[in-house]
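Entry 14. Structure prediction run on the chain below.
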Amino acid sequence: MTGRCGAEIVPIPGTRKLERLDENIGAAAIQLTSDVLREIDRVASKITVQGARYPENLMQMIGR
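Output returned:
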C-alpha cells in the first residue's frame, strides 16, 4: 500500500501457515481512496497515544 506521502507501508505478519501469508500478501492489492485515508486520519487523530514504544532501558540500547 502507498500512503499519502508516497511511503510504503510494509506489514510484518507473524504467521506460521502458508495460507495466512497468502492472505496477508493479498493486502498489497488494496488501494485506499483519498476519502478513506481522510477517514482513517480523522479517527486516528482521536486516539491518545500512551506510554513509550519501549521501556526506558531498551530505548537506551537502541541509541535514543
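DSSP finds three helices and no strands in the chain.
Filed with the rest of this week's runs.
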